[in-house]
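Quick one: sequence plus coenzyme A SMILES, need structure tokens.
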Amino acid sequence: MGSSCTGSRLRRRTRGQQMIATRHGRSPCGRSEPPGEAGSRIEEGHRFTRMNAVVVRRLGGEDWRTWRDLRLAALADAPGIFHGDLAEERAYDEARWRTWTEDGVKVAAFDAGVPVGVAAGRTPAERTGAVELFGMWVRPEARGGRIAERLALEVVAWAREAGRSQVELWVICGNDSAERVYRRLGFERTGAYEVHPHDPGLRKYVMTRGTLDSPVRPLPR
Ligand SMILES: CC(C)(COP(=O)(O)OP(=O)(O)OC[C@H]1O[C@@H](n2cnc3c(N)ncnc32)[C@H](O)[C@@H]1OP(=O)(O)O)[C@@H](O)C(=O)NCCC(=O)NCCS
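Reply:
Sure thing.
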């Protein structure tokens, strides 16, 4: 199953300088880079001390700016990871962001009130019983604090409350740090692969877990 990833190739990006490695490469995605214009508004003057208690909560329609700013910062930081297009989404108006915020679930992490991470869940019409977790991103300055685990578990909780039995997500081949996060939470590869819709040089694979599975398990080293 893992060998299916080896067709992907090391690629360098100009915007955000995101680097995605193959299974044989050395760099996972998520390299620390200055955020784009949308993100700089969020982080200005903020220091990530790790001493602040990080709060994770679901967003409502009134939080559309938070979803917008985190989403645009994510696309600027890691353009090869997400399906969205930064220029296209930057052009969305308020009504569109509000509607998107309220569609499915958007979960954000706040460090002393400053948004530092985000994840989203949606119920694909074609997949009854499943929720797709997407858009997972933690600000480079806030990484390493297990924030992603809390974001993912909140999406799983939302899926369970919505009566869904499975949560699925896509990982780009070579994004090993993301896979480790998900494996710690009990997600496993299904063996399904697809070519990235915007980049035929990249492949992605599905991971899934049940919404009633135990929350966290230790990662085998
Ligand atoms: C993947 C991602 C969400 C993980 O978020 P996180 O809250 O930092 O997750 P963790 O704290 O569990 O750390 C994950 C790994 O990154 C390592 N890490 C620590 N500090 C880091 C830093 N400053 N920068 C990058 N990685 C760091 C951790 O040690 C950990 O490694 P391990 O799994 O071997 O223990 C985050 O790196 C990110 O936003 N990446 C770019 C977007 C992305 O890949 N999204 C996932 C799409 S499927």
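The pocket of coenzyme A is lined by residues 29-30, 32, 78, 81, 136-138, 140, 143-149, 171, 175, 177-178, 180-181 (CB under 6 Å). The chain is about 25% helix and 30% strand.
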